[in-house]
Amino acid sequence: YVVDKGNHRHFMVKEIHEQPEVVGHALAHYLDLARGEARLPEGLDFAKADRLAITACGTAYYAGFVAKYWFERLARLPVDIDIASEFRYREQPLSKDGITMVISQSGETADTLASLRYARSEGQRIAAVVNVRESTIAREADVVLPLLAGPEIGVASTKAFTAQLAVLAATAIGAGKARGVLSGTEEASLVRAFSEVPRLMHEALKLEPQIEALARELSKVRHCLYLGRGTSYPIALEGALKLKEISYIHAEGYAAGELKHGPIALIDEEMPVVVIAPHDRLFEKTVSNMQEVAARGGRIILITDPAGRDAAAIDTVETIVLPAMPAAVTPLVYAIPVQLLAYHTAVIMGTDVDQPRNLAKSVTVE
Ligand code: G6P
């Protein structure tokens, strides 16, 4: 990996475009594509584990949040997900046969490291998903799951996020097999689905001109809401985080079903609502949330697939249509339009995209 911007204007957009390759690389490492099997890292006994605690900060936390859905669904393993600055002080009981997984691009985030040390003092087995292999977190973990993503320079994390998702998905599939939840056929079909992700990411990147045009509109607003259900909920949170980090537009991510319990009060003609909704088993539920937004004059930006576009039957400001894909892989691909939307909005607003104000790439103090 060469650390320069190449033909790109910012590191962030270079890193966004590297994702098909980076994710392909991580998947090739953690999945045996030819045999249709996940390669579980040595030293993690998922068959025996009764609980998984995941902790991280920022974007890495949202990757862990997606992984909670995967581990629970594919491996029937209960997962607690915590922000590291809460995990380290909550004094929660950790089960004897539990595994703690920390996720950190840099491997140096102070709260995440302190969480690791707390978990260790409670006798947990510790796995670390890190990009920087020489980092403190990597050194102190029992098992290291490297992202192999190459250096990430943009302060707002992009390729590390999707590489984290790739590693976590592969591990969840492996855990599902080890725990006897997934049959060999189901494992092979999931592995096949994930092997398509780099191609799907390429397709998503082709939507950049449409997203750039949409960013012109978004750059005029002061607030923006992101909604999603299931694994699209953490992607909504990540989309909102990306937008606020680099464009300084106030953005909130919400579980779509929670709309009526608060954020609906904010909806008016001024409020764009980005809805992340692949045509999955929860799609109809999200459509009713979109109707609630539309009825109040809210402006909907829908990110979906061809079936979702056809079934939504709702007036949107813009519909971004990704290819159809199996539900398990959507978080990796739907991450791309939300990253591009934040990036182009920030460029139009003229902010310092790679070094946003007040933020640091790695927060090594509490
Ligand atoms: C900072 C960065 C974020 C990152 C977070 C966690 O806030 O600006 O992009 O997600 O730290 O960093 P880590 O290195 O632990 O993943």
UniProtKB/TrEMBL annotation:
GO MF term set: carbohydrate derivative binding; glutamine-fructose-6-phosphate transaminase (isomerizing) activity
- State which gene encodes it: glmS
Do the record's keywords include Transferase? yes
Origin organism is: Kaistia hirudinis
Q: Which residues of the full protein are shown?
A: 241 to 606 of 606
Q: In what residue span(s) does the SIS domain sit?
A: 42-181, 214-356
Claim: Glycoprotein is one of the keywords in the record: no
Q: What is this protein called?
A: Glutamine--fructose-6-phosphate aminotransferase [isomerizing]
Q: Where is the active site?
A: K361 (for fru-6p isomerization activity)
An example of a Gene Ontology cellular component annotation for this protein is: cytosol
Q: Which domain of life is it from?
A: Bacteria
